[in-house]
Amino acid sequence: MSEYIHKSHNVTVLLYHLVFPAKYRKVVFDAGVDRALADAFQEIEKRYPIKFLEVGSDDDHIHLLVQSVPNYSVTKIVTRIKSLSAREVFQKCPYVKKALWGGEFWSDGYFSSTVGKHGSETMIRNYVKNQGMEYILIHSDHQLALF
C-alpha cells in the first residue's frame, strides 16, 4: 500500500507503473528468475528511496508498481532497478545469461506511466474546478483543428 512520504518541506505520493521487457523479448522469466528479482528488489528498497508496491512477471516482461521521492526522476529509478536486478539475476541464474547469448538482461526500452492515488485526470480536473467560488479557466490543452 502506498503511503505519504514526509520530507522537510513537502509531502508526496509518487506512484509509477513500469514495464521492462527482457532483451530480445526472450521468454526467460521462470520461478528462479522471479525469486532472484524479488531478492534484488528487497535489497534496492533497503538502499534507495524506491518502494515496490507490486511486481508481476509475464513470460517476456515484468510489470512494477513503484513509489519514490521527487528528486528521483523516472529515468534514475529505471536505471537503478534495471542495473541492480540484472546483476542479481545473472549471479543467481547463470543459465539466463547463456539464453541471452551472454548479453544484457533487459532491453533498452521501457514503459512508464504515473498512477494517481485518488483518481483519474478527469476527477482531478473537476476537483480543481470546484475549489473556488468562481472558476476561471486560465489554460486548457486542446488539439488544434485543421478546419
Describe, in plain words, how this protein is organized in 3D.
- It is elongated, with a radius of gyration of 20 Å.
- It contains four helices and six strands.
- The chain has a single domain (5-129), classed as Transposase IS200-like (Alpha-Beta Plaits).
- The model has no long low-confidence stretch (mean pLDDT 84).
- It has helices at 31-47, 74-92, 94-99, 121-129, and strands at 5-6, 11-12, 14-21, 50-57, 61-68, 111-115.
- The longest helix is centred in the middle third of the chain and has 19 residues, at 74-92.
- The protein is α+β, with helices and mostly antiparallel strands and 147 residues long.
- 35% of the residues lie in helices and 22% in strands.
- A hairpin with a 3-residue loop joins strand 4 and strand 5 (61-68).
- The strands form two sheets. A four-stranded antiparallel beta sheet has the order 4-5-3-6, covered by helices on one side.
Annotate the secondary structure layout.
Layout: E1 5-6, E2 11-12, E3 14-21, H1 31-47, E4 50-57, E5 61-68, H2 74-92, H3 94-99, E6 111-115, H4 121-129
Antiparallel strand pairs: 1-2, 3-5, 3-6, 4-5
Low-confidence stretches: none
**Structural class estimated from helices and strands:** alpha+beta
Order of H and E elements: EEEHEEHHEH
Percentage of β-strand residues: 15-25%
Total beta-strand segments: 6
CATH topology: Alpha-Beta Plaits
Second-tier CATH architecture:
2-Layer Sandwich
